[in-house]
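Anyone up for a design puzzle?
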């Protein structure tokens, strides 16, 4: 440890040259309301010195644990480890948030530089024999009965002990060194992969110079495309991008079939064209390194290594789960395909349904079946009103209040901040909402923390998404899918905000990957419930409450197109599992592999996996061998929601039980036990199949 300390100190002196340490906002707690990140003072040049200072501080704290003359105890070893690394936590949480939400070339370059250093720092901790021996001593004392721990304390000890073992603490020195090199390479490659996806999407432009080709597109979509063109110096033209707020309206509404084909083909071909952002070799290298790492640690493949600490436990259980759902989803999708083809046949063009036609004809079929279109609903779904709907539900269910504050610094002008209070007025935490697209923001939507809950220290949480920007006098108007996305991420936020644990390491969303989606997907159900829609869905011009007949149509079409939606989701989950079930990359061709695997499960050509391998950011960002967890958690959330279907949407007793047994508990008990504590039984897949209309 001392050699590493000296190296870190040298790096610190070099990185901090010309900058006084007292000026770096990360070196001490932020002097802001609620201790929120001081974005008014944070500069890009602050990050590297703060990382180095944080590493130095962390190493000193770890060395103090190792060199302690006291016998190892839960407090002086496990809790001391859990509370260490304050500066590093502070700078990491902000830096990596900006890397995803508001990045630039300077931040990306630093991420590539600093990530291997952070990987080495983590290896230095978890491969330290002296530190590991102290954890072993505490564990042995507990197992022998010399020491008694609470369930939460036992979970924290088990978490760290398993982290040591999974990091290679039991390996010999040569294999430890091999593992270090693997981790460094993986860190660099995964960042490069994600950066390629971001840059590819940012650079792509579908330019339209003939307004007739825009037939069918809603006025606000056309106006947004016109604004994009103006911003790019292309007056009189229209630009469409790969982000969902631009791509999906084209697929859904554009009468011009070629336009739909162009943007669809570009989307599924991301980072797969042999150009500078091609990700095929990077992915192959990542999979090879992951296989090597898994085998070093005693696993036959990387999926079994990952799943060993999840609810699913191993790849066989995941594959069994996917195989159970797949026939229901695929058969429903095939029936939907027949309906769409019949609709095309009515037009008399002699055309066969293709993948770029599905959204378009599904929208036509929705209109025909339910006399309902997204364009009809959207005026009632302004972003601001939907956000009020989030807060309304959280208040009715859990007694929470959200007060918007202006004095907390933000990293972008369209970010809003709220102080979250409990029913008794006590502060539970701070919530940032960041919903507008920008050049430096990754696609998708997510939740994370600027600060974790730790005993009396309350969390600082953020939600990020990229919804449609306001155009002219018209506010951001959401689709039903985007409403669900907002409610989904807010469910994650509640999981973080309501955390009530004694230790940071088991707080909030620090749970098994296939359990973490339960609160988020559970929360989605409220977004389109009649009682909730009547509260927040108001016309942006007239303030008229959404009519009952529209709500009724929304409810009737609740299972519409779910064969397609479930099939594309499960196909991506299969892809993720198939590639991480590999035991070798010999003769692996990424495109051929994807094609063969989709043929293996019988995916119909009119549907593609939600994400192709070359732009599958989830498997580079913590969901590797874990994308199945969305469906796994959905069987939990569907079963949990059935309680509210029986007892009432805002049944206080049920809501508080969910809060006390799920949202507050973090990782303080086994996740299945937490679920049983709430539900009284284990879940079955039946509720999921029923809600999706697959059975």
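Challenge accepted. My sequence:
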């Amino acid at each position: 440890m001392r050699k590493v300390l000296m190296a870190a100190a040298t790096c610190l002196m070099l990185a901090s040259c010309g900058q006084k340490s007292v000026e770096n906002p990360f070196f001490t707690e932020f002097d802001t309301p609620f201790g929120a990140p001081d974005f008014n003072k944070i500069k890009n040049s602050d990050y590297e010195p703060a990382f180095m200072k944080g590493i130095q501080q962390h190493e000193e704290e770890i060395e103090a644990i190792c060199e302690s003359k006291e016998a190892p105890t839960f407090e002086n070893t496990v809790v001391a480890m859990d509370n260490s690394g304050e500066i590093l936590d502070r700078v990491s949480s902000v830096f990596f948030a900006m890397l995803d939400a508001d990045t630039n070339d300077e931040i990306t370059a630093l991420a590539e530089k600093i990530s291997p250093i952070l990987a080495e720092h983590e290896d230095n901790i978890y491969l330290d024999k002296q530190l590991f021996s102290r954890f072993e001593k505490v564990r042995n004392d507990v197992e022998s009965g010399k020491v008694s721990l609470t369930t939460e304390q036992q979970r924290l000890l088990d978490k760290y002990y398993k982290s040591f073992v999974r990091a290679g603490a039991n390996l010999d020195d040569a294999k430890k060194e091999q593992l270090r090199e693997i981790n460094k390479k993986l860190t660099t490659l995964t960042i490069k992969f994600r950066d390629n996806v971001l840059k590819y999407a940012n650079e792509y432009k579908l330019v339209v110079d003939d307004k007739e080709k825009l037939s069918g597109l809603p006025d606000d979509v056309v106006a947004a495309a016109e604004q994009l063109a103006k911003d790019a110096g292309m007056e009189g033209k229209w630009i469409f991008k790969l982000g969902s707020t631009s791509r999906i309206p084209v697929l859904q509404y554009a009468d011009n079939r070629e336009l739909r084909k162009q943007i669809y083909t570009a989307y599924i071909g991301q980072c797969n064209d042999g150009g500078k952002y091609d990700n095929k070799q990077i992915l192959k290298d990542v999979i090879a390194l992951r296989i090597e790492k898994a085998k070093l640690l005693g696993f036959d493949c990387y999926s079994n290594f990952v799943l060993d600490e999840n609810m699913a436990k191993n790849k066989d259980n995941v594959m069994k789960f996917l195989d159970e759902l797949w026939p229901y989803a695929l058969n429903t999708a095939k029936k939907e395909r027949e309906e769409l083809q019949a609709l095309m046949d009515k037009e008399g063009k002699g055309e066969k349904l293709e993948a770029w036609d599905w959204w378009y004809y599904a929208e036509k079929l929705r209109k025909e079946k339910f006399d309902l279109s997204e364009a009809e609903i959207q005026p009632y779904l302004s972003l601001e009103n939907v956000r009020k709907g989030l807060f309304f539900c959280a208040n009715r269910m859990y007694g929470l209040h959200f007060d918007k504050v202006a004095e907390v610094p933000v990293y972008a002008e369209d970010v809003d901040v709220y102080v979250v209070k409990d029913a008794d007025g006590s502060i539970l935490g701070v919530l940032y909402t960041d919903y507008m697209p920008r050049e430096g923001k990754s696609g998708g939507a997510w939740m994370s923390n600027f600060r974790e809950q730790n005993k009396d220290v309350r969390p600082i949480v953020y939600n990020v998404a990229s919804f449609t920007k306001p155009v002219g006098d018209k506010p951001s108007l959401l689709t039903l899918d985007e409403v669900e996305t907002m409610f989904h991420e807010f469910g994650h936020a509640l999981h973080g905000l309501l955390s009530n644990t004694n230790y940071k390491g088991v707080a909030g969303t620090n749970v098994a990957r296939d359990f973490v989606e339960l609160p988020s997907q559970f929360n989605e159900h409220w977004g389109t419930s009649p009682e909730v829609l009547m509260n927040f869905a108001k016309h942006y011009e007239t303030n008229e409450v959404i009519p009952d007949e529209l709500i009724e149509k929304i409810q009737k079409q609740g299972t519409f197109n779910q064969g397609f939606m479930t099939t594309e989701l499960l196909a991506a989950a299969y892809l993720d599992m198939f590639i991480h079930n590999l035991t070798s990359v010999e003769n692996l061709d990424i495109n051929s592999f994807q094609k063969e695997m989709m043929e293996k499960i019988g995916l119909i050509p009119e549907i593609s996996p939600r994400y192709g391998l070359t732009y599958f950011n989830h498997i580079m960002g913590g969901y590797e061998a874990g994308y199945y967890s969305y469906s796994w958690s959905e069987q939990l959330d569907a079963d949990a929601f059935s309680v509210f279907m029986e007892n009432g949407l805002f049944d206080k007793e049920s809501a508080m039980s969910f809060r006390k047994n799920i949202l507050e508990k973090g990782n303080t008990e086994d996740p299945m036990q937490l679920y049983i504590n709430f539900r009284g039984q284990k879940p079955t897949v039946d509720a999921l199949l029923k809600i999706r209309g697959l059975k």
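A detail worth pointing out: The two ends are 58 Å apart (CA to CA).
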